[in-house]
C-alpha cells in the first residue's frame, strides 16, 4: 500500500515537473533560418533585437540561395528560407517544401560595380563603359553566374550592355556574393559585381557604377516558412516585416517590395 502510494506520488511529481519545464523548453526552442549571403549584415543586427524581445534563439545559416535551396531539398531542418531571387523559392514551392501561405516578397535590391575604396565613380554603367580596360588584366569578381542570383543578375546585365563577351574569360566566380565582395575588398580582383547592400556593408570598397534596373529581372528576396518549421518561424518572419526591421534593411541598402526605399 505504501509502495503504491509512493508510485502515485512519484508519477504525479514527474507530470508536474514536465508541465513546469514545458514552457521553458518551448521558449528555448530556437529557429533555424537559411538566408542568402547578402543578408548577413542586416540580419546579424536584426536577429539579436528579436531574440531579446521574443525570448527565442535565432540561428542563421548564410550561403548562396542555390546552395541553401538544395540543402532543404536534401532534408536540412531549416524553419525559414529567405532567397535572393524568386526562382529558388519557386523550386521549393514546386517540391512542396514551403508553406505557400507564408510566402512573401520581403525585400528588393540593386546591382552595382565595385572597386577599391579610392576608385573614381562613373555613375550609371552603359554600353560604352570600357570594362576590359578598367580591369587592366585583372579579374571581375562575381558570384556563380549560372546558379547564384547575384551572378545570374550580373551576367544578364552585362549581356544587355553587350559587355559580357568582352570579359567572359576574365570572370572570377565565387560561391556567393559575399565571397565576390571579399575578393575586391582584399585587392585580389580590381572590380566586382555585387548588390548595393553588399557594397554598403564593406568599407574597403566603393561603388564604381550602378546597373540600370531594366537590364535584369527585378531583384526580389522572397521569404517563406518551411512545411516542417517550428511554430516560432512565422513569428520571426512577421518581425522581419515590422517597421523596426524594415528600418534596418533600408539603412543597409535594401529596398522594400514595390520599390519602397
Automatic annotation (TrEMBL):
Reply yes or no: does the keyword Manganese apply: no
Which key words are in the record? Metal-binding, Signal
Identify one Pfam family in the record. SBP_bac_11
Q: Which domain of life is it from?
A: Bacteria
InterPro entries in the cross-refs: ModA, ModA/WtpA
Signal sequence: where?
1-28
The similarity annotation says: Belongs to the bacterial solute-binding protein ModA family.
- Identification of the protein by name: Molybdate ABC transporter substrate-binding protein
Species of origin reads Ruegeria haliotis
Identify the gene encoding this protein.
modA
